[in-house]
Amino acid sequence: MPRSPSLTVPLPTAAAMSDTEIAIGRVTRCSIRGFAGATQLPQPAFPAFGDFCRAEFRRGPASAPAAAPTYAIGLIYDLSVQDDELARQLAAADQPTAEQLLDSQYRRAVPVEISALTVGYRDGDRWVSSLPPQPPLTLSPIYLLPDEDVRLFTEDLGFVRHILGAEAVPPEDLLAAALRRAASARPASARREYILRAAREAARRLSQDLGRLETVLEGLREWGTSESRSHG
Predict the structure, then answer these.
(1) Can you tell me the distance from the alpha carbon of 183 to that of 181, in angstroms, rounded to the nearest whole number?
(2) What's the 3-state SS for the chain?
(3) How many of the other CB atoms lie within 10 Å of CB of 88?
(4) Out of 124, 131, 143, 223, which could bridge 68 as a Cys pair, Cβ 3.0 to 4.6 Å?
(5) What is residue 95's predicted lDDT score, i.e. its pLDDT?
(6) What pLDDT sits at residue 144?
């Protein structure tokens, strides 16, 4: 999809969101296979590579009564910070002050574009690891999936095939990041079992491409080592 110009759009207010939902932008361009959103956020509030997110799509006319939740589930594979006039001025300065750097990097909201690969959708109580029937609505809010929804969606490992078959994304690194996120959404006692089950699924799908499989497994081993240290 061609890159869209930077766009600043208001996000839903806190009153319009549940305690477990975090809005990270609004959809600016989309297809069934993926969507992108734009917003302005301070850099510490950025979502992360491999985070699961959602954006609403709607079946039927807009006048129809609201039905059960229907939204595309995306996996963030790129975060692109757009330059702006203040950033260009500071970059051209001989030496920005410490206060200017602190303000630019941690306090000031900067324009950012978020790109997500569609890996499934929710249709009422069903979690489906297939492409949705329609793309998200333009300017629909993009939310990070809370842990509970991540657990429910990733229980079925069907999303793995969408990641490994994707083009224009780093599929092996993205899969490892997605599995780490899925594991972290589970109780500590269930994480190892989940990672082992997911690794077996990756090995099954990449049995003819051991180089790609090794990249995935290396990303999981690094996470497993850090997990062991944090609980040691």
Answers:
(1) 5
(2) CCCCCCCCCCCCCHHHCCCCCEEEEEEEEEECCEEEEEEEECHHHCCCCCCEEEEECCCCCCCCCCCCCEEEEEEEEEEEECCCHHHHHHHHCCCCCHHHHHHHHHHCCEEEEEEEEEEEEEECCEEECCCCCCCCCCCCEEEECCHHHHHHHHCCCCHHHHHHCCCCCCHHHHHHHHHHHHHHCCCHHHHHHHHHHHHHHHHHHCCCCHHHHHHHHHHHHHHHHHHHHHCC
(3) 10
(4) 124
(5) 74
(6) 94
- The two structure tokens encoding residue 114: 């978020």
**Beta carbons of 28 and 158 less than 8 angstroms apart:** no
Q: How far apart are CA 33 and CA 120, in angstroms?
A: 9
Predicted pLDDT at 14: 35
Give strand pairing partners of 126: 123
Tokens representing 111 are 């324009």
Q: Can you state the angle between helices 171-184 and 188-205, rounded to 10 degrees?
A: 150
Output the pTM of the full model: 0.80
Measure the CA–CA gap between 183 and 46, rounded to whole angstroms.
21
Q: Which two tokens stand for residue 60?
A: 């039927």
